[in-house]
Design goal:
The chain is of the alpha+beta class. The chain folds into three domains: about 100 residues, Rossmann fold (3-Layer(aba) Sandwich); about 70 residues, Dna Ligase, domain 1 (2-Layer Sandwich), CATH 3.30.1490; about 150 residues, ATP-grasp fold, B domain (D-amino Acid Aminotransferase, Chain A, domain 1, 2-Layer Sandwich). It is built from twelve helices and 13 strands. Strands 8, 9, 10, 11, 12 and 13 form a six-stranded antiparallel β-sheet that branches. A hairpin with a 5-residue loop joins strand 12 and strand 13. Helix 1 crosses helix 11.
């Protein structure tokens, strides 16, 4: 197959006055793009990278029209707008070019954390209580306050539509109304978007990645390939990170300073429950081909799992991103992971086996 790899590199991103330092932390590095292109070529495909931007000098529409790919491998985050991850898929659908991964609606939904939580609630999937603030002086939901007008429990403050833990640090945990007001106002100023405030779930943080698709009429758990769950070793970071998967941990520390357990030390019952919930999130939000669901296990309620968010464009940096580390723990190298994502899309789209060179049959669990 001829495959166009679509991504947004950090060094190609625009810059403007007053831009937050972490503005482009969710964009990709050449290491990620080179890893995907290299994997596809080793799997027997023709593959080229294209910066996912329709504006000059990148001119994606013209370049894709000339290249005429059989399939696009999409990991584009784009730059501006509250549904920016759906912009390139919208262009591809206009061009009638097939692509890997979730479609427009799922990508737009997942980037909007509050809207995702509303969908999860509608499906009976557990997610922490929350409120969205568009002004710093908005009335606080009474369910978040005690009889004295103070917070009932610690709350967590973060931008509503960012990835890579942008805006997330130990300071995101607030314990008083005054702290809440200050942090919300600061985030509104820095990120210029609604701010999500949710109950902070004290406890373990576990990430569950999966590849494949939900088949009509089948239990979603049985039709997805789950990677071994990954647990953040928050105790290894000390008090500086306050038990939070911070932006610094994801972008500054590096793999040598990344502390985790994979497979996560979970009982078989806990793992099955997390997989069941992750499959439910995958289905409810319309994910396709690949996704990662992030959980906190409430230490004050017998490790009850709560869903924080779903990422339908999980990082794919070889040997570094969470999903890649999970696949590695399953005995999969990076080529096999990329091949499995590609094969999931090929099967879903009904492309011919001869064109796709399907090489990794998907099973219900990683071997």
């Amino acid at each position: 197959m001829r495959i166009a790899v679509l991504a947004n590199l950090k060094n190609n991103a625009p810059h403007y006055e007053g831009m937050p330092d972490d503005k482009w932390d969710d964009l990709d590095s050449p290491r990620t793009v080179d890893g995907i292109v290299g994997a596809l070529r080793r799997l027997g495909h023709e593959a080229e990278f294209f910066e996912a931007n329709i504006l000059p000098p990148f001119n994606l529409v013209e370049k894709l029209t000339d290249y005429q790919p059989d399939l696009c491998f999409n990991i584009a985050e784009s730059h501006f707008g509250d549904a920016r991850e759906s912009q390139i898929p919208a262009v591809l659908e206009m061009l009638r070019m097939p692509y890997t991964g979730s479609k427009l609606l799922a990508l737009a939904l997942a980037l909007d954390k509050a809207m995702t939580k509303r969908i999860l609630q509608n499906h009976g999937l557990p997610t922490p209580e929350f409120q969205v603030f568009e002004r710093g002086d908005e009335p606080i939901n009474l369910t978040l306050l005690n009889e004295d007008g103070e917070l009932r429990f610690p709350l967590f403050v973060k931008p509503n539509a960012e990835g890579t833990s942008i805006g997330v640090s130990a300071k995101s945990i607030v314990r008083t109304v005054a702290e809440l007001r200050f942090r919300v106002a600061d985030h509104l100023r820095r990120y210029n978007q609604p701010i999500l405030v949710e109950r902070f779930v004290q406890g373990r943080e576990v990430l569950v990645g999966m590849v494949g698709n939900v088949q009509p009429g089948y239990d979603p758990v049985e039709t997805l390939t789950f990677m071994p769950a990954l647990e953040l070793d928050h105790a290894a970071y000390g008090s500086d990170h306050a038990g939070v998967y911070t932006n610094e941990m994801k972008t500054v520390s590096g793999l040598e300073a990344y502390h985790y357990h994979c497979p996560a030390p979970l009982t078989p019952e806990q793992l099955r429950e997390l997989q069941r919930l992750a499959a439910g999130v995958f289905y409810a939000t319309g994910c396709l081909d690949v996704a990662r669901v992030d959980f906190r296990l409430d230490e004050n309620d017998h490790d009850k799992p709560y869903i924080l968010e779903v990422n339908p464009l999980p990082g794919l940096s070889p040997g570094y991103s969470d999903l890649c580390l999970e696949a590695q723990a399953a005995g999969w190298d990076h080529d096999r992971l990329i091949g499995a994502i590609l094969d999931a899309a090929v099967i879903r789209l009904g492309l011919s086996v001869q064109e796709s060179a399907v090489s990794f049959p998907l099973s219900a669990s990683a071997d």
